[in-house]
Design a protein that fits this description.
This protein has helices spanning 14-29, 63-71, 76-84; strands at 3-11, 34-40, 54-60, 86-92. The chain is α+β, with helices and mostly antiparallel strands. Helix 1 (14-29) runs antiparallel to helix 3 (76-84). It is globular.
Length: 93
């Protein structure tokens, strides 16, 4: 069953996130994932959450594929770029 994840990024290093963006789509594709939509500066409709600099909606064939993507040891360097660019929270829906 198609599964979605929400990635919320708070950016502190623009160069690292730019490098991450050059590799992220290929890394997702290894596990059947893709970015459905990404937006800088998301807008709060209700509440007072910590607002990230960037939010992305990711789609995977199933939850196992999403979990395999985040745990894939061959993608350690790609995930390190994202994490080195600031902080991120990724939630499986």
């Amino acid at each position: 069953m198609t599964t979605y994840a929400v990635a919320m990024l708070r950016i502190t290093d623009a160069d690292k996130i730019a490098e991450y963006r050059t590799k992220a789509a290929d890394a997702l594709a290894l596990h059947g994932g893709e970015v459905v939509h990404a937006t800088p500066d998301p807008k709060v409709l209700e509440g007072a959450p910590v607002v990230p600099d960037v939010m992305a909606l990711l789609r995977f064939p199933d939850a196992a594929a999403a979990e395999a993507w985040i745990a894939d040891p061959t993608l350690t360097d790609v995930h390190a770029l994202r994490n080195g660019a600031g902080s991120s929270d990724i939630l499986l829906m």
